[in-house]
């Protein structure tokens, strides 16, 4: 029977054998990786970025040539009557449209690649041009027009760019640090520009073909934005299905270009608006509401594309209903706000309202209660003229003041609790508190109009006020006497 130590030794032997196998496998994998890396490096080294045919290969593919041949034939033939009873996916023309959408995306990518090639070559001649002209096709046209010319005043760029951009390019070219390109490099650059312009022309043909078939492929989307804009949206998004899956905020940006205003005002420029701004609804909307109209068009276009992708409504009624809804909303936005109506007064409530009583309410009534004097001043006796402050009815009227009985105003002797409380607080503030503490500003000398100077003790004075007696010292003929008053 094997002991515990023998079992441990056996486990160690197995572990050592497994480690040897793992090391061998790692060596084999490392060798394979080295071979793969060497192969990749060989491919990268074999790739020549100076050769345009190595970088751009789309125009030489069979798929590109076949699709473009079919598109040209279809454009020459024109649009015929479509068989709506056939399933859309089985229609060969629909398959051609799908292939055209995919090809348009490939053409866009190929134009970007060629644009990078042109920038790398022409950067030695005019490095600032790529920051002034952002669109690849416009950049290729300008490069082809300028060539190796150093004085841009001799180059006519009328119609290629706006006047402001042309002026900025001319000023920048006069101070550029670039040098003329060698003839071989310039020839490759011009060839790349021609290839980019040819791809752009092919893309326009594809979009024209798709536009002629949009009434059959996407009737609802075409009813909202038009056939031309619908074709551009589908071509940029990569097909009707891809457009249906795209959110409305991205549909609004399809076809948007980065605008270079060259330091000019941005007040009249529209941002974040692509092909949607080419629609009739957008152009007929006032400028202040165009951004809202663009968002609304993008949202409804997405809904229409989803309906078309599932062939939910081949007649296009859904698209026309959505377009009418858009039109009504834009008209509603332009309506002036309703006039402010006068608010009627509430119906008077003749029933007495229930109010909570209590100590707080009694105190409030006592605090704001009308005095007897004010009651008499507000009251008038029939047939008896009231007295006034200026006489002859002028000034403030006294009402029934002085007209009751003996001609005097009777004042009630009893003092209210609130008045007593206020008087007590005033005495404490004037003469000190009842505890005997006095204010530091209290003086024992007092000036009176009759006795002259009085000498008194403020503490005893306040205490005697509370008990009803008061002792005062006054000066009379140079002597002081003490009088006790009650």
From TrEMBL:
InterPro entries: Nop_C (IPR042239), Nop_dom (IPR002687), Nop_dom_sf (IPR036070), NOSIC (IPR012976), Prp31 (IPR027105), Prp31_C (IPR019175). GO terms for biological process: mRNA splicing, via spliceosome; spliceosomal tri-snRNP complex assembly. Keywords: mRNA processing, mRNA splicing, Nucleus, Ribonucleoprotein, RNA-binding, Spliceosome. The lineage of its organism: Eukaryota, Viridiplantae, Streptophyta, Embryophyta, Tracheophyta. Gene3D superfamilies: 1.10.287.4070, Nop domain. SUPFAM superfamilies: Nop domain. It is found in: Nucleus. Residues 330-362, 455-486 are annotated as: Disordered. Pfam families: Nop, Prp31_C. Residues 455-480 have a biased composition (Polar residues). Its main location: nucleus. One of its GO terms (molecular function) is RNA binding. Residues 353-362 have a biased composition (Basic residues). PANTHER family: PRE-MRNA SPLICING FACTOR PRP31, U4_U6 SMALL NUCLEAR RIBONUCLEOPROTEIN PRP31. Residues 217-335 form the Nop domain. This is Nop domain-containing protein. SMART domains: NOSIC. Belongs to the PRP31 family. Residues 335-349 have a biased composition (Pro residues). One of its GO terms (cellular component) is U4 snRNP.
């Amino acid at each position: 029977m094997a002991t515990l130590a023998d079992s441990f030794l056996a486990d160690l032997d197995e572990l050592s054998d497994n480690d040897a196998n793992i090391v061998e496998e790692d060596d084999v994998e490392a060798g394979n990786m080295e071979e793969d890396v060497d192969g990749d490096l060989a491919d990268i080294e074999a790739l020549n970025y100076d050769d345009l045919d190595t970088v751009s290969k789309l125009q030489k593919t069979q798929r590109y040539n076949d699709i473009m041949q079919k598109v040209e034939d279809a454009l020459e033939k024109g649009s015929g009557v479509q068989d709506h009873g056939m399933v859309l996916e089985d229609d060969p023309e629909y398959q051609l449209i799908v292939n055209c959408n995919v090809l348009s995306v490939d053409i866009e990518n190929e134009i970007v690649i060629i644009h990078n090639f042109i920038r790398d070559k022409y950067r030695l001649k005019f490095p600032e041009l790529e920051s002034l002209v952002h669109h690849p096709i416009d950049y290729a046209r300008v490069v082809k027009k300028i060539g190796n010319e150093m004085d841009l005043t001799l180059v006519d760029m009328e119609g290629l760019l706006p006047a402001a951009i042309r002026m900025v390019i001319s000023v920048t070219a006069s101070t550029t640090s670039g040098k003329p390109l060698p003839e071989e490099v310039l020839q490759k650059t011009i060839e790349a520009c021609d290839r980019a312009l040819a791809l752009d022309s092919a893309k326009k043909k594809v979009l024209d073909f798709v536009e002629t078939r949009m009434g059959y492929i996407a009737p609802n989307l075409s009813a909202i934005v038009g056939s031309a804009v619908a074709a551009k949206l589908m071509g940029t998004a990569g097909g009707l299905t891809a457009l249906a899956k795209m959110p409305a905020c991205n549909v609004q940006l399809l076809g948007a270009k980065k605008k270079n205003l060259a330091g000019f005002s941005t007040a009249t420029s529209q941002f974040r608006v692509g092909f949607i701004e080419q629609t009739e609804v957008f152009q007929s909307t006032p400028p202040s509401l165009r951004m809202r109209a663009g968002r609304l068009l993008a949202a409804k276009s997405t809904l229409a594309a989803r309906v078309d992708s599932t062939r939910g409504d081949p007649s296009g009624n859904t698209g026309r209903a959505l377009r009418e809804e858009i039109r009504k909303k834009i008209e509603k936005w332009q309506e002036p706000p309703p006039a402010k109506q006068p608010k009627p007064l509430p119906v008077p409530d003749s029933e007495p309202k229930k109010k909570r009583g209590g100590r707080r309410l009694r105190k409030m009534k006592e605090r704001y209660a009308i005095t007897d004097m004010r009651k008499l001043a507000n009251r008038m006796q029939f047939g008896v003229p009231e007295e006034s402050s200026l006489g002859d009815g002028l000034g403030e009227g006294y009402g029934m003041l002085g007209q009751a009985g003996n001609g005097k105003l009777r004042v009630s002797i009893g003092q209210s609790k609130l008045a007593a409380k206020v008087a007590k607080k005033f005495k404490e503030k004037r003469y000190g508190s009842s505890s005997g503490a006095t204010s530091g500003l209290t003086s024992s000398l007092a000036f009176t109009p009759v006795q002259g100077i009085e000498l008194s003790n403020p503490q005893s004075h306040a205490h005697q006020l509370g008990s009803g007696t008061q002792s005062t010292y006054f000066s009379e003929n140079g002597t002081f006497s003490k009088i006790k008053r009650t």
